[in-house]
Design goal:
With about 450 residues, the protein is α/β, with parallel strands linked by helices. The protein is built from 8 helices and 31 strands. Strand 10 and strand 11 form a beta hairpin. The radius of gyration is 29 Å and the shape is globular.
């Protein structure tokens, strides 16, 4: 009996040791397998990261002809993309996103007023590199008056915009600014109306002439009047005679790297946004436009061929009540019309002459009741045997209430590449992406 018990005990002990060894071997094998998997995953992640870092949007050959400038711009785009991804993660991008890439870049931040300059890193489209006054100090406008266009007082908007240094211009309080003469801007300026209800109205409005890197954001601009035949200062060291201005809300003349975003524009004497005389690298986004006839002119004249270099992005805007035509009206250049909401027009939405390339993607076009105004497009004063070769296309647009887009051209890929500035999203998302178009009612301590 004692021998049997001893044999049983010995057998159990041996079995226990065998089980422990097997478990140890299994754990070691699994650990080795896990390490190998992690190494493989790390390698895959590194490869994917490298691939992402190389996915830089091709630059347009007409936008920056200087090879050194192209190289610098590529580096800038890479840095900007990295910063944007990082900042969006910090802000909880996926918890408050609307699908609008500009808004989702900065509006999730409840402390936006402490991080105002983040906006300059959120640009899209052909005007994406407009940094405005990002690298300068803040200038606070405290005085809404415009008593002397030649010798503006410190604290006024005119005094701010003519300075030679980069400035990020904000407003101390709500105000209505009635300009006596055109507000002639200097380079590297941001006018940022967030946090105040700022109207530029009932007088002259904004002129961006022969300058670069300007951002106009968060303003109500309306009832602009023709002004001129007067002396006006354009910098601390220069003032000169100005002939009559047309009365545009925002006039862009021979300028580049301009971004017009989240403004409410209406009822001006001429255009709401006009870009002419060789202007390029422009984005017009998130604006709400209403009660106006000739909304947007892009290109000076059919004979002014310098506008062949023009590239303009029109994105996430709401073309609203009381609009008649020119949303936009284009000449010569390359125009990307993407993810806009067209709820009103009386004559047509998009027009042009002089062989512009128009790339319409992911827009929502709702035609008016008038059975003779259902066509989105209009070739202005040009016979069909000429315009049939122009590259105009509609891709992924939502056409409602009988709206129709008349395409033309052979679909030359090189031409549309020059008229492509960002990835279009589904037209089904247009309502959400444009629901907050116009000047935002931002208040401190809350998401904007």
């Amino acid at each position: 009996m004692a021998v049997t018990n001893k044999w049983v005990f010995t057998s159990l002990a041996l079995l226990f040791l065998l089980l422990v060894g097997a478990m140890t071997t299994a754990r070691t094998g699994n650990a080795s397998s896990n390490v190998e998997t992690e190494k493989e995953q790390s390698s895959k992640n590194s490869t994917m990261a490298a691939a992402r870092s190389e996915e830089v949007e091709p630059l347009n050959e007409h936008a920056v002809p200087d090879p050194e400038a192209v190289a610098a711009e590529v580096e800038s785009v890479i840095d900007r993309n990295i910063r944007n991804v990082t900042e969006r993660r910090k802000l909880g991008f996926f918890t408050c996103g609307t699908g609008n890439p500009i808004d989702d870049c900065w509006r999730c931040d409840a402390d936006w007023q402490k991080n105002r300059k983040r906006l300059a890193d959120c640009g899209i489209g052909f005007g994406r590199n407009a940094i405005g006054g990002r690298d300068g100090r803040f200038y606070v406008v405290t005085d809404p008056n415009d008593d002397d266009p030649v010798n503006p007082k410190p604290g006024t908007l005119r005094h701010a915009v003519i300075q030679d240094e980069p400035l990020w211009i904000v407003f101390k309080r709500d105000m209505v600014i009635q300009l006596k003469q055109e507000l002639i801007m200097n380079s590297f300026k941001t006018i940022d109306g967030r946090g105040a209800n700022v109207h530029i109205a009932n007088g002259a409005c904004i002129t961006i002439q022969y300058v670069t890197n300007v951002i106009i954001h968060g303003l109500h601009i309306h009832d602009c009047k023709p002004t001129g035949n007067a002396m006006v200062r354009s910098s601390p060291s220069h003032f000169g005679w100005r002939t009559m201005a047309d009365g545009d809300a925002i006039s862009i003349f021979g300028s580049s790297h301009v971004w017009v975003d989240h403004n409410s524009l209406s009822n001006c004497a001429d255009g709401l946004v006009d870009a002419v005389m060789g202007s390029t690298a422009i984005t017009v986004s998130n604006n709400h436009m209403t009660h106006h006839n000739e909304v947007m002119l892009l290109g000076h004249s059919d004979s002014y061929t310098r506008d062949k270099q023009m590239q303009v992005t029109i994105a996430y805007n709401h073309f609203g009540e009381g609009l008649i035509q020119r949303m936009p009206r284009c000449r010569h250049g390359y125009f990307h019309v993407v993810n806009n909401d067209y709820t009103h027009w009386e004559m047509y939405a998009i027009g042009g002459s002089a062989n512009p390339t128009i790339n319409s993607q992911g827009n929502r076009y709702a035609a008016p009741i008038n059975p003779f105004a259902k066509e989105v497009t209009k070739r202005v004063e040009t016979p069909a045997n000429q315009w049939k070769s122009w590259n105009w296309r509609s891709e992924g647009d939502l056409l409602l209430n009988g709206a129709y887009f008349t395409p033309s051209g052979a679909g030359a890929s090189a031409s549309y590449a020059r008229a492509s500035s960002l990835g279009a999203k589904s037209s089904a998302m247009v309502g959400a992406m444009t629901s907050n178009a116009g000047a935002l009612p931002c208040r401190r301590g809350r998401q904007c």
